[in-house]
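Weekly sync, protein design subgroup
Attendees: M.S., D.O., the rotation student, P.L. (late)

Item 1: inverse folding check
M.S. brought a backbone from last month's batch and wanted to see whether the design step gives back something sensible before we order anything. D.O. pointed out we never logged the input encoding, so this time it goes straight into the notes. Structure tokens as presented (152 positions):
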């Protein structure tokens, strides 16, 4: 375990946290279930290896009513029966948007169109913004070596 290099940058520049908070409020109003947003948060944080976000997103997922088996198995969502088709579409979108450089066509039409089957334009906007915000927090935490379980 390493020592944090500094406070989280969103703490150092408090106006930035207020702006991010406003974005999060907007995302929450778009009609995507909290459970889906939290599963997306958890999966992205697994991909990026962000301890603080894994800790907080697992707790938030529990609070949103996500069962332990779904929290524990989200890394293998393709191989388990615990997720709806809509959740699978959101998780696939989250993985592709997070791993932009892994393929020539970062987000293939098939992935986007599958998500669009379950989510309207406002909800898709919320999902893409959620994916961006989670990746932002993962990068803030990883680059400054923030630790899980430590309050901001």
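Designed sequence read out in the meeting:
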């Amino acid at each position: 375990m390493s020592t944090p290099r500094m406070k989280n940058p969103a703490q150092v520049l408090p106006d930035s946290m207020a702006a991010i908070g406003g974005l999060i409020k907007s995302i929450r109003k778009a009609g995507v279930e909290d459970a889906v947003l939290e599963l997306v948060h958890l999966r992205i944080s697994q991909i990026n290896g962000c301890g603080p976000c894994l800790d907080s997103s697992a707790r938030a997922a529990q609070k949103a009513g996500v069962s332990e088996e779904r929290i524990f198995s989200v890394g293998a969502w393709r191989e388990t029966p615990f997720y709806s088709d809509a959740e699978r579409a959101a998780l696939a979108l989250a993985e592709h948007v997070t791993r932009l450089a892994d393929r020539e066509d970062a987000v293939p039409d098939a992935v986007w169109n599958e998500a669009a089957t379950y989510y309207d334009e406002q909800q898709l906007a919320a999902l893409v913004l959620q994916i961006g915000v989670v990746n932002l927090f993962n990068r803030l935490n990883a680059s400054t070596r923030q630790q899980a379980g430590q309050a901001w």
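Discussion: Residues 87 and 99 are 18 Å apart (CA to CA). The two ends are 18 Å apart (CA to CA).
Action: P.L. to compare against the previous round before Friday.
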